[in-house]
Design a protein that fits this description.
Elements (H helix, E strand, L loop, with lengths): L1 H12 L14 E6 L8 E6 L2 E6 L14 E4 L2 E6 L6 E7 L2 E7 L5 E3 L7 E4 L19
Antiparallel strand pairs: 1-2, 1-9, 2-3, 3-4, 5-6, 6-7, 8-9
């Protein structure tokens, strides 16, 4: 038993995972933005170690079916490089499932997918997501 505990202790001491709460600058209330107007608002609320995605009309599915509605415990917030475009990101995980991510330095836009077509914008922010000018220039926000 002691040997097993020692092995786990050594393993976790070498991990760079943050099993604490979401960094303070990334917390807040974010609204889902689409090119279409809906009669309801979809919101992501990020606080401590919980991400809650909900609709104000008590619906059970997301408008784009790209993400799930519900509450997700953040088991890790990891800074990593996005493989799609090379950008540095701050990714929130629920176990091994990715909840969403922020581009590092941009804390007002919470992306749900790699294509950056589905995202939430911080309430009160004037942040704008622009499409890339060309397919060779995938870095945008």
């Amino acid at each position: 038993m002691n040997r097993t505990v020692l092995i786990f202790a050594l393993f976790f001491s070498g991990c760079s995972l943050d099993f604490g709460s979401v960094e303070a600058g990334y917390r807040g209330t974010f609204d889902y933005k689409t090119q279409f107007e809906y009669s309801y608002t979809t919101t992501a609320f990020i606080e401590d170690d919980l991400v809650t995605i909900s609709r104000d009309d008590n619906g059970t599915s997301s408008p784009s079916s790209v993400f799930r509605l519900g509450s997700f415990h953040v088991s890790a917030g990891i800074s990593q490089q996005n493989t799609a475009d090379g950008a540095r990101t701050y990714v929130l995980f629920n176990g091994t499932e990715r909840i969403g991510y922020f581009n590092e330095g941009e804390k007002d836009i919470f992306y749900i997918d790699e294509a950056r077509e589905n995202y939430f914008i911080r309430r009160g922010s004037n942040a704008v997501v622009k499409p890339p000018e060309s397919e060779e220039d995938p870095l945008y926000y």
